[in-house]
Design goal:
Number of helices: 3
Order of helices and strands: EHEHEEH
Number of domains: 1
Shape: elongated
Mean pLDDT: 87
Radius of gyration: 19 Å
Strand order of the largest sheet: 2-1-4-3
Distance between the termini: 32 Å
Helix content: 25-40%
Number of strands: 4
Largest sheet: 4 strands, antiparallel
Amino acid sequence: MNAQVKITVLKRSHNQEYLEKYAESVWDPCERLQEGQEFVASGGNMPTGFCSWAWADIQKYVMVLARGGNFIGVKPGTFVTCCTDGFRPVFFLVERIEEREEVEADEKSVPIALST
């Protein structure tokens, strides 16, 4: 299985306290991504227009979902993660895009009893 995975920007965060204490200047939240923005990853490739730094952080989760895996404690086919920018982290929802035809076929399938 190598499903497509949708990546949705949930939230851009801003750690003002850390910026003031540890950075040389105070920055605004991430300017590359916006809440609600959606991207689709296909074949393990970074989506066009996606942040390469964030991709390096979340790619492992995208690949697990693309290959049919799931994570303990969250809804199957989903995961929430973020980039590792400690000053301005961006949170993402990653979701496996199921082929609708496969889902419909599974819903219509009838168990078959095997005789011996």
